[in-house]
């Protein structure tokens, strides 16, 4: 079983990914030296820690166990479908160290060479926020639903 983090794991994640960068990633052709390693937007979501990790080689959404949580260890080849406000996303288990276990969803790997550090950080912060934002609906869909409610008719839906 994996125990949850009582406090925001951002500093722990950044430290672990700095070690990975120094030991095995820095010399690879897709390593973007100008991109920082940063844990972005981490906050509690349904008792778990959710945010994004930006490194010189990737951008991922991450979920880690929160305070009082105990996760079962999953195989590396498993996929977990998580229902986020923006929709269902597939996450895979990962482990940097026995005490740093997470679920991740890759957003960009490798990092686009044309991204500046500032844009990459903005993308990471925005990705974490958007994943937890309420879903957007087209104005016509909302108005059709209101008209149907007021007229007693059922609005058609593309999800049926």
TrEMBL record:
Report the transmembrane regions from the record.
none
Tell me the domain of life: Bacteria
Pfam families per the UniProt record, alphabetical: NiFe-hyd_HybE (PF11939)
UniProt feature coiled coil, ranges: none
Query: InterPro entries, from UniProt?
Result: NiFe-hyd_HybE, NiFe-hyd_HybE_sf
Query: What family does this chain come from, according to its entry?
Result: Belongs to the HupJ family.
Protein's recorded name: Hydrogenase-2 assembly chaperone
The source organism is Kluyvera ascorbata
